[in-house]
């Protein structure tokens, strides 16, 4: 088929590479300009550079809503548009333009985790698996019929970075597998169960702030979800920002006020956690590694030279 590709960052780059390696003909690529947003500088392989290396025309747009772009798309005469990690709304006159419509590739197991940062949100929420879905685009974001979907399990120590590497390898087989079905003439696909749908917003630095009233199990997943190269989780100690780089759920149960720097356990220092810690002992969060405001990385047992005091949500 003749394909136009909309995409951005490494997700779009992997999608374009899969298309270039396939029997399909890539007629045009549309991508976003480079961004200084903290999360958009991560996994930032250039779609534009890859397209240009292979002689594919490139258009740079924040939004696909101008007449010049629409005319270029009509000239490209695509059988299908393939989109992955396109960050703004694609209007119906564009997604309905190709003979076979538009195939969107999304890094979640739709209908759950539509929208943004699905791997991070899924890890924070304790999902047992994550994956990639190729679906037909319609008027509602990430809501169209599913053409192909593949999942991978979430391991007990997986970070968001681990899950990125697991799922990014699914992009090529999911994309080309879905295109093969469409090229073979299949038109009926799996409708999404909209009662199971969820839609999540972009991550920001505020979302990495530790709230010590959360249960330790949730905080441990938050730390793993905000693994390098994502901005780390953070708290405040004596008014200064302290990043939490690694932590585990404590073996023992500890009661008191959430945020209390309480006890050395193994290689970590246990912080009291959970809104109900005052009335019953909870597992705490045993921090094992931190980074200070001046960039020093230390073992928590080295940083916390004595017990007592509090970690706080704000300075």
UniProtKB/TrEMBL annotation:
InterPro entries: Formyl_trans_C (IPR005793), Formyl_transf_N (IPR002376), Formyl_transf_N_sf (IPR036477), Formyl_transferase-like_C_sf (IPR011034)
Gene3D superfamilies documented for this protein: 3.40.50.12230
SUPFAM superfamilies named among the record's database cross-references: FMT C-terminal domain-like, Formyltransferase
Top-level taxonomic group: Bacteria
Domain Formyl transferase C-terminal: 206-306
Domain Formyl transferase N-terminal, first and last residues per copy: 1-168
Entry's Gene Ontology cellular component terms: cytosol
Pfam families linked to this entry: Formyl_trans_C, Formyl_trans_N
Listed GO MF terms: methionyl-tRNA formyltransferase activity
Keyword vocabulary terms for this entry: Transferase
Record-given protein name: Methionyl-tRNA formyltransferase
